Amino acid sequence: MAVLKIALAGIPADGRPVSAVVPVRAVQPEDSGSLPVDEVQLEGILLPLDGDFLFRGSLTTVFSHFCDRCLASVKIPMDLDLLWAFKEGPPLAWDAEFTGNGEEKFRYQGSEIDLSACVWEELVLAAPLKYICREECAGLCPQCGADRNADACGCLDRAEESSQAHRGFADLAKRFPDLATADPESEE
Ligand SMILES: [Zn+2]
Ligand SMILES: [Zn+2]
Question: How far is the centre of ligand 1, averaged over its atoms, from the C-alpha of 45 (Å)?
Answer without folding.
Answer: 39
